[in-house]
Amino acid sequence: MNWEEDEEKLLPSQRPEWSDVSPLPQDDGPNPVVPIAYKPEFAETMDYFRAVYRADERSPRALQLTHQAILLNPGNYTVWHFRRLILETLSKDLQQELDYVSKIAEKNSKNYQIWHHRRWLAEKLGPDAAGRELKFTEKILSGDAKNYHAWSHRQWVLQSLGGWDDELEYCHQLLEEDIFNNSAWNQRYFIITKSPLLGGLQAMRESEVKYTVAAILANPENESPWRYLRGLYKDDPKSWIHDPQVSTLCLKVLTSSGTNHVFALSTVLDLLSHGLQPSRELREAVDTLNPNSSSTKDSLGNTICSVLEHADAMRVNYWRWRKSQLIV
Amino acid sequence: MAEQPLDLDSSPSTPGEQEEGEQEECIGKLLADSSFERERHLMFLQMMYQMLPHHYQSQEINRLTLAYFAISGLDIVGSLDTVDKDEVASWVLSFRAYPEDIAEINDGEFYGFNGSRSSQYHSDDAGGFSNNHSHLASTYCALAILKIVGYHLTSIDWRPLLMTMRNLQQPDGSFLPIHIGAETDLRFIYCAAAICFMLDDWSGMDRDKATEYILKCKAYDGGFGMTPGAESHGGGTYCAVASLQLMGSIGVDPLSSRASSSILDIPLLLEWCLQRQASDGGFQGRSNKPSDTCYAFWVGAVLKILGAGKLIDEKALRGFLLTCQSEYGGFSKFPDELPDLYHSYYGFIAFSLLEEPGLNSICVELGITEAAASALRK
Predict the structure, then answer these.
(1) CB < 8 Å to A28, chain B
(2) What is the pLDDT of residues A130-160, one digit of tens each?
(3) What is the DSSP letter of A278?
(4) Looking at this predicted complex, what is its ipTM?
(5) Hey, is B96 helix, strand or coil?
(6) Closest CA to B354 of B256, B251, B282
(7) Is-contact A26 A46, C-beta < 8 A?
(8) What is the pTM of this model?
(9) Taking a contact as any Cβ pair under 8 Å apart, which residues of chain A between 258 and 317 contact chain B?
(10) What are the boundaries of each domain within chain B?
C-alpha cells in the first residue's frame, strides 16, 4: 500500500492513470429529500468509485480508490465490500491489510465497518491471528479503555481464535488503572464464565468475591463491583444470602462514616427480598442512618427505603415505590 | 436506527472526570436555557430538511436514516406540514430493491430498501454482479418515514421483502443487516421486529429464535449488551426490550404484575435502568460513563415500556437536557457542544417523553409519533 500523502491528495481526475474512466455521477432523482452539500472532492471520488464498481474492475488502482473513498466515508459498507472482493481477486497479503486497518482505525476507532473488516481478515487468517488481534485491541483500549467495539472484538477473538491465558491479568491491570471501568468488570465476568482455562463461575466465586470485596471497600460509591458481586451469585440466591462475606461487607460499609451507603443499602434490601435473616448489628447500622428515628418499629426493608429516599434523592420516586411493594 | 448514528461510546472517562464534569455542569447550568426552545428547533429541522451541511457527507451511506431523523423530528415538534408528503413517499420508495424476477427470491439476497444512492444503481447498470445492498436499518427507516407521511403501506405487496428478510436471520437468531456480510447484534433484531410490526406480518422472522438471542444478551447486572457477553448498554437494552415488546413477549403493565415476566428479571432490569440517571440528571449509556442526551430516550423508553417512566427524576433530566440544547437549535451529545441531527432527534423525543407542551406523543417501541404508528393518519 502506498502511504505517501502527496499521492493521496490527487483526485482521480488529476491522475493520468484514470483518464480512461468516465465517472458515474450520483442520480439523486427529481425530488431529492434531505440532500447533502457534498464537497467537490467527495463527489468526484464517489463518482469514480461508482464507475469502477459498476464495471466490477478489481484492479490495484481500484483498491487505491477504495482507500480514498474510505477516508471520506469510512462507514460506507459498499466500498468496504468491494475492497474485500478486490483483495480476494488480487490475492493480496492479508497481514499487510491488517497493517492498513490498524492505520485507518487510529482515527476511526468507533466505526463498525472497520471492525467488521478486521474480523473478516482475522477469520481468514485463523488462530495464528489471535495474538495480533489481542495486541491491536489492547492498543485501542490504551487510548480509550471503554471502547465498546474493541471489547466486542476482543471477546470474539478469545472465543473464536483463543488466547485466554493472560486475560484475567489484563483485566486486573485495567482495574488498577481505573477501578471504575465497568467494561473491565464486565470482561472479568466474561472470562470467569467462559474461559476454558478456568473452572467456571462456581469454582471462581471464592477468589472473585475476595477481589470484589476489596474493590468495594476501597470505593463503596463505585457501582460496578457491587453489580459484579451480585452477578457472582447469579441463579443462586441461597448462596447470595448465606455467604457471610456479603452481609459482613454491607455491615462494614454501613458503619463507616463519611461513606456513600447507597449501594450497601440497596444490596441489603435485595438480600432481604431473597430471604436474608438480618443480624441485630445490621439492623442497628441501618437504624443509625435513619433520620426519622420515630419509625424504629418499621421493618428493616421499610427503614432502608426511608434512608434511601434521602441518601439517593435522584431515585426518591423509585425508593418510595419499592417501599410500597414491600410485603410487611 | 442505523450503524453510524448509534454511537456506542461517549468519550473516555477517568476517575477525576466526574468531579470536573460536575463543576463544568454547574457553570453550564447558569448559562443554560430555562425552557425547550421549540421555534429554534423547528428552524434547525427545516434547515436540515432543506440541505444537510457537508459535514454529513461522511454519513452519506445512511441518508435514509438522516431523512428519518429530520422528518420524524418535524413530526414530533408538530410541523410535519413542512414536508411534501407525496414527494417524500415517492423518494423513499425509489430506494426499494426489486428482484429482477420472482426466481431471484431464492438467491439469498434481501430485497428491502437501500440506504443511499451510493450503493444503488439502475438495473441496466447491474453488470454481472449484484448491486442490491438493501439494509435492515434503512428498511426500518424507510417504512417509518412512509408511516409518518401517511402512506398506505397495504397498497404494496411486501412478501418479497419479508420472505427475503429471513435470509438475514442467523442460526443463533441474530440478524445480519445486509446479505453481503456485516456484524450481527441486537440492533438488527430490533429493525427486523419493527419492520414486521409495521407491516403487520411476522413471516419475516423467527420470533422464538430471535428471543433466544436477545436473552443471551442479558448481562449479569440486568441490562442488555449488544452481543452475548457484552457490557450492558442503554442502546442494547432498548433494542432488547423494545423488540420483546413488539413481539408481544412483555405483558401489559409488567411492573404491577406480581407474577413477573418469565423471561425478564424485571426488578433487576428496572434498577439497572434507573441507576443510569447520573448526578447531573442526565442518563448514561453504561455504568460510570458520562451522561449523553440520547440515553434519555434509549433508557427512558425502556422505563416507559416497563410502566416505570414516572420513577425517574424528571426535573433533573430536563435540567441536563437543557444544558445540551444548542443556541442554534437542536441538541448536542454533551453540554455546551455543537448540535448534530442524531442527538437533536433524541433530544426532541426525550422532551416528548417528558410531556413537553406542543410536542406530539411517541410510540416508544417504534421510535415515531403515536399518530404515525396508528393506522388512523390521513
Answers:
(1) 117
(2) 999 999 999 999 999 999 999 999 999 999 9
(3) -
(4) 0.94
(5) strand
(6) B282
(7) yes
(8) 0.93
(9) 266, 273, 313-317
(10) 37-377
Residues of B in contact with A301 (CB under 8 A): none
* pLDDT of the residue at B1: 39
- Average pLDDT for B139-145: 98
Task: Give the confidence band of B31 by pLDDT, cuts at 50, 70, 90.
Answer: low
Q: Is B218 helix (H, G, I), strand (E, B) or coil?
A: strand
Choose the mutation target among A154, A236, A274, A314 for the interface with B, i.e. most B CBs under 10 Å: A314
pLDDT in tens, B180-230: 989 999 999 999 999 999 999 999 999 999 999 999 999 999 999 999 999
Q: Which of helix, strand or coil describes residue A166?
A: coil
Calpha distance B303→B280 (Å, rounded): 19
What is the CA angle B55-B56-B58, rounded to 5?
Answer: 95
Amino acid B211 reads T
Q: What is the pLDDT of residue A89?
A: 97
Please check whether residue B233 touches A, CB under 8 A.
Answer: yes
Give chain A's radius of gyration (CA, Å): 28
Residues of chain A contacting B181 with CB distance shorter than 8 Å: 81, 116, 120
Which residues numbered 9-48 in A keep a CB inside 8 Å of some CB on B?
24, 26-29, 31-39, 42, 46
Percentage with pLDDT > 90 across chain B: 77
Mention every residue, 6+ apart, whose C-beta is less than 8 A from residue A212.
A225, A228, A229, A232
Among B residues 273-332, those touching chain A with beta carbons less than 8 Å apart:
274-275, 277, 279, 281, 286-289, 308, 310-313, 316
A73 to B60: CB separation less than 8 angstroms, yes or no: yes
Which residues of A are less than 8 Å from B274 in CB distance? 315, 318
Computed over every residue of chain B, the mean pLDDT equals: 88
Q: Place B63 in a pLDDT band, splitting at 50, 70 and 90.
A: very high
Q: Which residues of A are catalytic?
A: 110
Q: Which of B46, B58, B314 should we substitute to test contact with A (largest number of A Cβ atoms within 10 Å)?
A: B58
What one-letter code names the amino acid at A239? S
The whole-number pLDDT of residue B378 equals 40
* Cβ count within 10 A of residue B29: 16
CATH of domain B37-377: 1.50.10.20
CA–CA dist A241, A275 (Å, integer): 7
Crossing angle for the helix pair B207-216 and B234-246, to the nearest 10 degrees? 150
- For residue A151, list chain B residues with Cβ-Cβ distance below 8 A: 230-231
Residue A4 has pLDDT above 50, yes or no: no
B12 vs A147: CA distance, rounded Å: 8
B304 and B345 in contact (C-beta within 8 Å)?
A: no
Burial of B210 (0-12, 13-18, 19+ CB in 10 A): buried
pLDDT tens per residue across span B344-356: 999 999 999 999 9
Judge contact between B195 and B136, C-beta under 8 A. yes
Tens of pLDDT, residues A183-215:
999 999 999 999 999 999 999 999 999 999 999
Dihedral sign for Cα B326, B328, B331, B336, please: negative
Q: Residue B33 and residue B113: Cα distance in Å, rounded?
A: 40
Least Cα separation, residue B158 to chain A (angstroms) = 23
Nearest CB among B7, B185, B316 relative to A314 is that of: B316
Residue of B49, B58, B117 with shortest CB distance to A75: B58
Residue A212 near residue A232 (C-beta atoms within 8 A) = yes
How far away is chain B from the Cα of A76, in angstroms, using its nearest Cα? 5
pLDDT at B255: 82
Give the number of residues written for chain A.
328
Distance CA A230, CA A213 (A): 11
**Alpha-carbon A70 to chain mean position:** 24
